[in-house]
Write a structure and sequence with these properties.
Largest sheet: 9 strands, mixed
CATH architecture: 3-Layer(aba) Sandwich
Number of domains: 1
Number of helices: 9
Strand order of the largest sheet: 3-2-1-4-5-8-9-10-11
Number of strands: 11
Strand content: 15-25%
Order of helices and strands: EHEEHEHEEEHEHHEEEHHH
Structural class: alpha/beta
């Protein structure tokens, strides 16, 4: 039986994030990937330009993908408008299976301009349909309306709990190192309030573009293969750590990408 996974995401011109990373990770994890393109992301060294796919074409892609009998899991990445959020929410309402929402509201290259209407659409329509959401700190702050970056592990836990309750789904929060330690942490909250802290050592590299997409794609693949939410999250953290460690440069002038299909290379 083929395990089928769908990603609804933006296309990355440098192939480090977005649907290119999702499909590479799916393939490395042994699942078959399908895609719906939400936007074209042009990644510069200090700037991100996003062009949304016209609404009618986006609708037709979603209609086309309905020809697939059943997906074992669905990942939702970059959505560029309230219309896209509502269309995806409608698409997911009749879907029975794991849904991972990676709310792409901030890039390493700079904060995206996101209005409150889009954030409200995520919170009111999309996230309640998710099994788990995987924001970074900046995205979590945007979704909760907070402005103060957590300076401690305790403060990060408070933020994670607040967002999990507001989003009405489980949460994987990519925290980083709020206490300026070599050890990075990610926080996991399930819908019952149970929490876990995933610890890993920081990797000294500039080649970390696509780490967030790799993590959420690996988590999606794990859920598609029947892993528990906690186990899939923990395995995704380990997978992403290795992808960062195998990161590669594609230019002497620019930082590079994580190797999202590193496990294929290792074989």
């Amino acid at each position: 039986m083929v395990t089928k996974v769908l990603t609804i995401a933006g296309s990355d011109s440098l192939s480090g994030g977005g649907l290119q990373t999702d499909l590479a990770t799916f393939s490395a994890e042994g699942v078959v990937g399908f895609s719906v393109i939400s936007s074209l992301a042009l990644i510069g060294p200090n700037k991100v330009e996003i062009t949304a796919i016209p609404t009618e074409i986006f609708k037709k892609q979603l209609a086309s993908i309905e020809q697939v009998d059943q997906f074992n899991a669905i990942k939702v990445g970059l959505l560029q408008s309230v219309d896209q959020v509502l269309l995806v929410s409608q698409f997911l309402k009749n879907y029975i299976g794991p849904v991972v929402v990676d709310p792409v509201l901030a890039f390493k290259e700079g904060q995206l301009a996101v209005d409150q209407e889009l954030i409200d659409a995520y919170l009111d329509h999309l996230l309640p349909l998710a099994t788990i959401t995987t924001p970074n700190i900046q995205e979590a702050l945007a979704l909760t309306g907070s402005s103060e970056v957590p300076k401690s592990r305790t403060a990060a836990l408070v933020l994670a709990k607040q967002l999990s309750q507001r989003a009405r789904c489980s949460l994987y929060l990519k925290v980083g190192n709020p206490e300026k330690q070599e050890e990075f942490i990610d926080l996991f909250f399930d819908e019952n309030g149970h929490r876990s802290i995933f610890r890993h050592h920081s990797v000294e590299t500039a080649n970390n573009h696509g780490a967030g997409c790799t993590l959420s794609a690996a988590l999606t693949a794990g859920l598609a293969k029947g892993e528990s939410l906690h186990d899939a999250s923990m395995a995704a953290a380990d997978y992403t750590q290795m992808a960062i460690a195998h990161g590669y440069a594609f230019s002497e002038r620019l930082a590079g990408n994580v190797l999202s299909n590193w496990s294929v290379k290792a074989k």
